[in-house]
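Progress note, sequence design subtask.
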């Protein structure tokens, strides 16, 4: 005799006739007794009709016995009595079994053929109703207001690698017509002229785009800061940021986390998320404004850094 231990739910479609023919007994998880293979197969098929695995086993037990009390069901299937009562109550509510008026209350079932015919007929009627409503539903959907159609096209995309992130930042800046708000790490600002970001920001400012940039201005970033046009508003932040944020025209957002602080534009560890969601851009713009209010103009900071360098000389 072969015994198969079945762990968890197994889709009925996974079984074949040969598979069932080669196994005499199942030990089914969740049911304390041995369940013969044919009964297990029938229970799996009943699940296709909307029954849970335990509801199916209880129904099959009642069909075999003709009638049975909840206590007898609990003992036969080695279930807790409370669980057995819940199962028969559910089956009775679905009109799959019927309770007697005696004591103890016993439950009987209609033949499985009648149950299957009833369920199948109900599903066919449901499908028929769905088919009849299909054309009307399609017509109604075409006439629905499209005020939110733009939101359904919003995208979120992940960008991997520092060089790819710099490239996407540059495209956002070059494509902006109204405003560009940027928060950059100190390393980003130091590399901005190397990766072409300085030129993109200056060109955007020259064509009338409002450019605001927040970063750390110190000895390591002075050269990059001096390379930015006066039309680009660069502000100094004392907060060391581990990420970068870009909002273009309050419609596109790129937010990135720097996982490696090393300098260099080729670093595969950096990851960013880009989105064209207006709601997301609005939320990130509020975050930028908070950082903007806490920062100071670059002119004052650059004078302090310059004086410090002169004193060091």
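Output:
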């Amino acid at each position: 005799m072969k015994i198969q231990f079945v762990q968890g739910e197994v889709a009925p479609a996974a079984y074949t006739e040969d598979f069932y023919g080669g196994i005499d007994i199942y030990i089914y998880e969740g049911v304390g007794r041995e369940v013969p293979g044919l009964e297990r197969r029938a229970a799996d098929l009943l699940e296709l009709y909307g029954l849970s695995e335990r509801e199916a086993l209880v129904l099959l037990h009642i069909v075999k016995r003709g009638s049975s009390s909840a206590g007898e069901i609990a003992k036969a299937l080695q279930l807790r009595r409370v669980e057995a009562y819940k199962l028969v109550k559910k089956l009775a509510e679905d009109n799959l079994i019927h309770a007697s008026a005696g004591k103890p209350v016993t439950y009987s079932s209609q033949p499985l053929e009648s149950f299957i015919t009833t369920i199948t007929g109900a599903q066919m009627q449901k499908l028929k109703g769905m088919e009849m409503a299909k054309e009307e539903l399609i017509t109604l959907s075409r006439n629905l207001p499209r005020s939110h159609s733009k939101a359904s096209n919003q995208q979120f995309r992940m960008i991997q690698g520092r060089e790819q992130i710099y490239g996407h930042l540059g495209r956002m800046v070059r494509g902006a017509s109204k405003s560009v708000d940027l928060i950059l790490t100190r390393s980003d600002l130091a590399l901005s002229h190397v990766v072409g970001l300085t030129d993109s920001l200056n060109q955007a400012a020259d064509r009338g785009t409002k450019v605001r940039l927040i970063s750390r201005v110190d000895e390591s970033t002075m050269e990059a800061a001096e390379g930015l046009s006066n039309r680009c508003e660069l502000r100094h932040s004392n907060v060391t940021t581990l990420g970068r944020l870009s909002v273009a025209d309050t419609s596109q957002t790129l937010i990135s986390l720097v996982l490696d602080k090393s300098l260099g534009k080729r670093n595969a560890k950096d990851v960013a998320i880009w989105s064209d969601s207006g709601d997301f851009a609005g939320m990130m713009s509020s975050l930028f404004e908070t950082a903007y209010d806490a920062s100071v103009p670059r002119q004052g900071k650059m004078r302090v850094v310059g004086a410090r360098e002169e004193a060091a000389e």
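The longest helix spans residues 112-142. Work on this subtask will continue into the next period as scheduled.
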